[in-house]
Amino acid sequence: MFIDTDTASDDAVALAIAFAASEVDVVGVSVVAGNVPLDMAVQNALYTREVCGRTDVPVYVGADRPLVLPLGTAQNVHGADGMGDIGLDLTGRTADVGHGVDALIAASQEYAGRLELVTLGPLTNLALALRRDPGLVDRLARVVIMGAVADHIGNVTPVAEFNMWVDPHAVAAVLASGLPLEFVGWDISRRDAVVVPTQAERLRAIGTPLAEFCIDIQATVAQFCATETKLAGFDLPDPITMAYAIDGDIALETRQMYLRCETESELTRGMVAMDVLGFTGGEPNATVIIRADHERFMARLEATLTS
Ligand code: RIB
Ligand code: CA
Q: Which of 24, 89, 155, 160 has a 20 to 30 Å separation from 171 between CA atoms?
């Protein structure tokens, strides 16, 4: 598995789930600008790798901005440092040598046909990799993307999910590529990956340093969910995406559809239109998760925090 991340508070839990999973071998992590500026996302990924005891997994620096648009971050959601602003020492760590895009291409060559890519942030690195080596399409076994919303209720604009909104041009390139794409949208996070306060307390009471880390860094997101998205707790979009990538049974319903991303409109930039009824006649280019298993996800999360 190769992971691309804009490491902030939910990405960190997704990384922890992957690092702890016996089912997967994480061969590399590339970092992309998104939730926070690139240098912070890199430090957050390196810090998380250390907390998880997985300094054996290389972490590479990727794209510092979207393909066309200026970078828009989500520090209002995840905190200025992306990790809940709880005072962690998130500086001074060194990433592995090489660019994240080159590392993804190299891994796809080394594990051709077997490598699974999980993207947890904007798709800038993946779009750049496709430009640099179109043959990537034939070497990736699957691409699991945290992104879009099947019910079109956005979390950064009325209709767009953040990862798609940051770099819609990258999304358009990925959707046109022919890659085997699987989307886990923010609708799934909002409905099937919300951790309410009593669950958060129970998970933190596991008492491991990892459990305390994964819960404590959600401080800012919990506030955002309470006041802005009006959820009953904090939601974990990247973790449920990662859990699904590892355990497909977390998906209770999926649908093959033709997806297109808006790149021009100021109002609907980043909206991923999903052709449910086949109006466009476009061949389906993605599998979209429609419903997921909250209990199975929570069991995976609890097992990770206990590890
Ligand atoms: O919309 C949720 C996504 O945006 C998650 O990946 C979160 O980390 C942010 O990147
Ligand atoms: Ca993310």
A: 24
Three-class secondary structure assignment of the chain: CEEEECCCHHHHHHHHHHHHCCCCCCCEEEECCCCCCHHHHHHHHHHHHHHCCCCCCCEEECCCCCCCCCCCCCHHHHCCCCCCCCCCCCCCCCCCCCEHHHHHHHHHHHCCCCEEEEECCCCHHHHHHHHHCCCHHHHEEEEEEECCCCCCCCCCCCCCCHHHHHCHHHHHHHHCCCCCEEEECHHHHHHHCEECHHHHHHHHCCCCHHHHHHHHCCHHHHHHHHHHHCCCCEECHHHHHHHHHHCHHHEEEEEEECEEECCCCCCCCCCEEECCCCCCCCCCCEEEEEEECHHHHHHHHHHHHHC
Distance 139 CA to ligand 1 centre (A): 26
Position 98 pLDDT exceeds 90: yes
Ligand 1 atom with least separation from CA of 189:
2
What pLDDT, in 10s, does the model give residues 106-160? 999 999 999 999 999 999 999 999 999 999 999 999 999 999 999 999 999 999 9
Mean per-residue pLDDT over the chain, rounded: 98
pLDDT at 307: 87
Q: How far is the CA of 40 from the centre of ligand 2 (A)?
A: 13
pLDDT the model gives residue 4: 99
CATH architecture of residue range(s) 2-306: Alpha-Beta Complex (3.90)
Percent of the chain predicted with pLDDT > 70: 100
Sequence spans of domains, the chain: 2-306
* Cβ–ligand 1 contact at 146 (below 6 Å): yes
Report pLDDT for 240.
99
Does residue 235's CB lie within 6 angstroms of at least one atom of ligand 1? Answer: no
Asked whether 213 lines ligand 1 (CB < 6 A), one says no
- pLDDT, position 246: 98
